[in-house]
TrEMBL record:
CDD domains: DPM1_like_bac. One of its GO terms (biological process) is lipopolysaccharide biosynthetic process. Residues 26-158 form the Glycosyltransferase 2-like domain. The keyword Transmembrane helix applies. Keywords: Cell membrane, Glycosyltransferase, Lipopolysaccharide biosynthesis, Membrane, Transferase, Transmembrane, Transmembrane helix. The lineage of its organism: Bacteria, Pseudomonadati, Pseudomonadota, Gammaproteobacteria, Chromatiales. The chain crosses the membrane at residues 251-273, 279-306. This is Glycosyltransferase. One of its GO terms (cellular component) is plasma membrane. It comes from the Bacteria. It holds the Pfam family Glycos_transf_2. One of its GO terms (molecular function) is undecaprenyl-phosphate 4-deoxy-4-formamido-L-arabinose transferase activity.
């Protein structure tokens, strides 16, 4: 195969010059502090996808992690024209970065996986083969996870809570996915400031299945998901995708109101039979209990409406692109 110089002076081969205009598969990888894994990730993804169809693209979305990841992405894009790099102008989070990749993808199918090599790229053909059976969405799920014990416990707890609070959620979800392209490219239309890819996908399609895959071991660094980030992410999911907290507030108000009424009745009864001798005690306590319960009840009802208004009124941008490795005329 002949070698040629591209416009940047980098030697590339004829295959690399041909950027696929209609790739069969787009692989979207949100990148955050992954300078040590990017080259191996690129090598393994390209090697396995070439066995499926050489017409693919690899979209690497750098989420402003502050390391050397973006420079490596630019180098990979020069070496392999199938690589498309995007750098966001600030840190928006993994789910926003993933949706940004969806918005810039062109593949009939879109695969997603993490940048830390815990998700084994060599199993992408398994997900693709399963998707071709007629599913819109295929998850790669793990019989066993290699995370630390506290991470596994918090993940199982969160998933159990989600199953109670969000019945429509595809509960066997992971970030190792194969999604029909037109379904995935619908996600940028959601304008919530706290995105959750799998929550959106559960709204868009029920045609999903799972494939068991092994969970790899992290070779470099530690997980970017700290305990605090996991808790924050869990709270965001509850607030954005479930009205369970608001319903809990309403029921707390109802219970407090009922207790207040019972206590109010007891206090008034004791007052009339002479069991209370302190002047003003009965009226003060009854008022506090009665109206405190009423206030919680009203706040819970208001919360129900405000929560629904919040879903509609939030207009913050989901992501903003800072730099790309390609120009508009080079699509």
């Amino acid at each position: 195969m002949l070698n040629n110089l591209d416009s940047t002076g980098v030697i590339v081969n004829d295959q690399d010059i041909q950027r696929p205009s209609n790739p069969t598969i787009s692989v979207v990888v949100p990148v955050y502090r992954s300078q040590d894994t990017l080259r191996e990730l690129h090598r393994r993804i390209t090697a396995v996808l070439e066995t499926i169809d050489p017409h693919f693209e690899l979209i690497l979305v750098e989420d402003c992690g502050g390391d050397n990841s973006w420079n490596i992405i630019e180098e990979l894009a020069k070496e392999d024209r199938r690589v498309r790099g995007i750098q966001l102008n600030r840190n928006f989070g993994q789910h926003a970065a993933t949706i940004c990749g969806f918005a810039h993808s062109r593949g009939k199918w879109i695969a997603t996986l993490d940048d830390d090599l815990e998700q084994v790229p060599e199993y992408l053909p398994n997900l693709y083969k399963k998707a071709l059976e007629g599913y819109d969405l295929v998850y790669g799920v793990y019989p066993e996870r290699t995370h630390k014990s506290w991470r596994n416990i918090t993940s199982h707890t969160a998933r159990w809570l989600f199953s109670k609070a969000i019945p429509s959620l595809n509960h066997a979800y992971t970030s190792f996915r194969m999604i029909r392209g037109d379904v995935a490219r619908t996600l940028p239309q959601f304008d919530s400031p706290f995105p959750f890819v799998d929550g959106y996908l559960s709204w868009l399609t029920n045609s999903y299945t799972t494939v068991e895959v092994p969970h790899g071991t992290r070779t470099y660094g530690v997980s970017n998901y700290t305990f605090r980030k996991l808790i924050t992410h869990t709270i965001n999911i509850f607030v954005t995708f479930s009205d369970l907290p608001l319903k809990m507030a309403t029921w707390i108000g109802i219970i407090a109101f009922a207790i207040g009424m019972i206590w109010f009745t007891i206090i008034i009864g004791r007052f009339f039979i002479g069991g209370i001798n302190v002047s003003g005690y009965a009226s003060i306590m009854a008022g506090i209990l009665l109206f405190g319960g009423v206030q919680l009840l009203v706040l819970g009802i208001f919360g129900e409406y405000l929560g629904r208004m919040n879903f509609k009124s939030s207009k913050k941008p989901l992501f903003m692109v800072g730099y790309r490795t390609w120009s508009d005329h080079d699509q």
